[in-house]
Amino acid sequence: MIRKNQRLLNIVNCLLDISLIALAYLLAVWLWLGVYRDNLINPAVFLLRTGALVPAVCYGVLMAAIYYAFKLYGSFRFSTLLDETVALLKANLLGLLLIGMTLFITREVNFSRGVLALFYVFSTGLVVAKRVTVRTILRHFRMLGYNLKHVLIVGNGRLAFEYLDSLRRNPQYGYNVLGYVAASPMSTGYTLQLVTKPAAAVEGDE
Questions:
Q1: Contact 20, 123 (CB under 8 A)
Q2: DSSP 54-76
Q3: Are 124 and 92 in contact (CB under 8 A)?
Q4: What's the CA gap between 200 and 185, in Å, rounded?
């Protein structure tokens, strides 16, 4: 069930990224060519009316593929928001370089550098804001008991305690520890159920 939900979340994430990147292009054109250049007819409106926004959507699809290559689609249980933001900055910079190379190869000299710079800022900002929102929503649902992975720890040694301590200190991972299996109780500062005692079970069989 969790894997099915994760696939659905990945698809929604991808479609939202494509939409936000297209929106970022509109914002960049509106702000730079419309507001900053003080044009009476805003070019952003022209793009919407003529369907010239299609290249931005295609670029959004390309960026979604780059995000996938940067492993930005998947479970974020063990990645921090900072790690994800840095990866997004790198991915968007790569996309910006690809646009620059394309403009150079096709000898397109009429494309505004101001639009390009604002496009990078807006696309990065919108995608990061979206992912912060998604993380917040997922954290809320995990606090309510949804989208959790239930685990049973085997052993009561130092590594078992460190693993337990890591999960309890990082609830954003979305793991619920049901208890542990060991021959003797674990000395921890947490309330944890001892599920069974393997050694005692063997002695009883004998």
A1: yes
A2: HHHHHHHHHHHHHHHHTT-SS--
A3: yes
A4: 12
CA-wise closest residue to 124 among 99, 95, 88: 88
For residues 195 and 180, the answer to whether their CB atoms sit within 8 Å is yes
Question: What pTM value is reported for the model?
Answer: 0.69
Alpha helices in 70-112 (DSSP H): 81-105
Per-residue pLDDT of the chain (206 residues; tens, 9 = 90+): 556 667 888 888 899 999 999 899 888 888 887 776 666 565 556 665 655 677 888 889 999 999 999 988 877 666 788 889 999 999 999 999 998 888 888 887 677 788 889 999 999 999 999 999 988 887 777 777 676 777 877 877 778 778 778 877 777 677 778 777 776 666 665 556 655 554 444 343 33
Burial class (CB in 10 A: 0-12, 13-18, 19+), 79: middle
Strand (E) positions, the chain?
Answer: 149-154, 175-181, 194-196
Measured CA to CA, the distance from residue 183 to residue 200 in angstroms comes to: 7
Percent of residues in the chain assigned helix, strand, coil, to nearest 5: 65, 10, 25
Closest alpha carbon to 160 in 191, 182, 189, 193: 182
Rounded distance, CA 128 to CA 9, Å?
16
Q: What is the H or E stretch that residue 49 is in?
A: helix 43-50
